[in-house]
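PROTEIN DESIGN WORKSHEET
SECTION A - STRUCTURE
LENGTH: 501
TOKENS:
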């Protein structure tokens, strides 16, 4: 590329937050920008880069202008072992203390990253919403800051109105239902399903304040969602809440179209042998007969809950793939799961994957008929994109809102009956979901009743819409092109302004 061309080319820097649910969609989005002619730099740490570098190299070798700029994570300074740079890899990863260490590490990187920004002189910063100080970095460079958070419009709207109007205050109990104000549908929830820092003010409330403030001071937001899925909420977000946004999802389907590396997306190791074995197992199953059970990248369930899931799946009689990420505290109870694995291998009914699954490959396979999900937005959207209905089992963060979207608005979700918003390491036996509830939800999801069939048909329609929206002329496609054009105009105006000075 000659220097004239590189000066004219739009340069966008992406700064992801180190957890798979945040990084994976941002890297997919960065790759889409590059595929649309933008010069892209992704700033991240060594261990995190190793989970996606192969795709970046491949895009670069195909002629796209994309690279990773590495920065050293201060692991030892924040009290983490060397190489632990992602929430997923931290023991007790979702405990407030450990999350605090990762966040502290990211904060310590502010100065070196700002030096990088100065060197790179980008035209725009796309940053995770969890890195609020970038709003000042962008202001120093007089460039737009776009924040990125891969979740639904629905959850963003619901969260906004709950924080604003506090409909959960002054209820007689934690389980009493309240209606979320200002939403286009009647959506009911209980206090227990809200995040603890929304229920009552605590240290985390203060942690989120600068994040919300930085959003209000940003140029806008990129949303991993699509118009056809939640246009009502896209509208509320843009009008009532006044947020400038571009819906460019589903980014995983778009960025990984025809990519054979999608099997190990977001993960360093790739085990070709294991992947082949899994695909052979899936190939041996009838279409839409397998339930895929996964709770995202962070959740580790306690032993008693794992036992209930195992029995529930067996009881349901359906084929299943279950991704098990063991709670580290229960190492001496592994015997039960190993026996279970042996048993379901023998009956050929189930397939256990330890720790990390090639999720996109499994969801894409015709044998997969539904998913049990914690309603993390990426998993939710990845399932919607391939037209799969879901058993909803929210655990923490905004997942209970996503459950309501799936069950009440889109009507493609069967709730398993989760009652309390809690991090996995604080689960209690009282909040446990029982085997009967799991088996019952599986029966509704994959059964032959009229309602079940209609739900599956609805899910397929959303899958079709997801495919269309990312094709040339589709909503998400057009939004991405428009956003890039707008950023180019801003670059031009800035250059003219500088010339005039
Ligand atoms: N993921 C995966 N394999 C796994 C677990 C997760 O590929 O075994 C990917 C999944 O496809 C999704 C992301 O990791 O893209 C998880 O994000 P999500 O929002 O679903 O949940 P979180 O991990 O943030 O709770």
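SECTION B - SEQUENCE
RESIDUE ASSIGNMENT:
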């Amino acid at each position: 590329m000659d220097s004239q061309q590189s000066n004219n080319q739009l340069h966008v820097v992406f700064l992801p937050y180190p957890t798979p649910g945040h990084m994976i969609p941002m890297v997919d989005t960065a790759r889409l920008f590059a595929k649309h002619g933008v010069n892209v730099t992704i700033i991240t740490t060594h261990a995190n880069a190793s989970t996606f570098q192969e795709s970046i190299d491949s895009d670069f070798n195909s002629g796209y202008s994309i690279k990773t700029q590495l920065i050293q994570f201060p692991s030892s300074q924040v009290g983490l072992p060397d190489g632990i740079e992602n929430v997923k890899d931290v023991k007790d990863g979702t405990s407030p203390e450990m999350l605090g260490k990762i966040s502290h590490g990211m904060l310590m990187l502010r100065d070196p990253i700002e030096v990088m920004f100065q060197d790179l002189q980008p035209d725009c910063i796309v940053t995770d919403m969890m890195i609020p100080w970038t709003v000042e970095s962008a202001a120093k460079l007089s460039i737009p800051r776009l924040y990125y958070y891969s979740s639904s419009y629905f959850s963003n709207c619901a969260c906004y109105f709950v924080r604003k109007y506090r409909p959960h205050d002054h209820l007689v109990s934690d389980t009493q239902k309240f209606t979320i104000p200002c939403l286009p549908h009647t959506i009911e929830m209980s206090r227990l399903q809200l995040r603890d820092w929304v229920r009552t003010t605590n240290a985390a409330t203060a942690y989120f304040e600068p994040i919300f403030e930085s959003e209000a001071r940003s140029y806008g937001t990129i949303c991993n969602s699509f118009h056809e899925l939640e246009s009502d909420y896209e509208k509320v977000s843009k009008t009532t809440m006044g947020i400038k946004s571009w819906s460019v999802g589903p980014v995983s389907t778009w960025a990984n179209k025809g990519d054979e590396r999608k099997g190990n997306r977001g993960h360093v190791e790739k085990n070709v042998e294991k992947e082949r074995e899994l695909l052979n197992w899936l190939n041996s199953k009838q279409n839409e007969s397998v339930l895929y059970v996964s709770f995202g990248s962070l959740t580790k369930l306690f032993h008693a809950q794992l036992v209930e899931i195992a029995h529930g799946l067996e009881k349901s009689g359906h084929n299943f793939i279950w991704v098990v990420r063991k709670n580290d505290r229960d190492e001496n109870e592994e015997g039960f799961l190993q026996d279970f694995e042996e048993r379901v291998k023998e009956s050929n009914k189930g397939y256990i994957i330890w720790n990390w699954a090639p999720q996109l490959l499994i969801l894409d396979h015709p044998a997969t008929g539904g998913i049990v999900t914690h309603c993390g937005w990426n998993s939710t959207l990845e399932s919607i994109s391939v037209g799969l209905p879901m058993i909803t089992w929210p655990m923490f963060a905004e997942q209970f809102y996503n459950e309501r979207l799936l069950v009440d608005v889109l009507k493609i979700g069967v709730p398993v009956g989760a009652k309390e918003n809690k991090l996995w390491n604080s689960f209690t036996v009282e909040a446990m979901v029982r085997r009967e509830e799991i088996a019952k939800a599986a029966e509704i999801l994959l059964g032959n009743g009229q309602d079940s069939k209609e739900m599956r048909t609805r899910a397929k329609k959303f899958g079709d819409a997801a495919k269309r929206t990312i094709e040339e002329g589709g909503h998400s496609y057009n939004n991405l092109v428009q956003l890039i054009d707008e950023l180019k105009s801003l670059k031009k105006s800035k250059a003219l302004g500088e010339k005039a000075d």
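SECTION C - NOTES
The first strand starts at residue 11 and ends at 15.
The CA atoms of residues 358 and 390 lie 18 Å apart.
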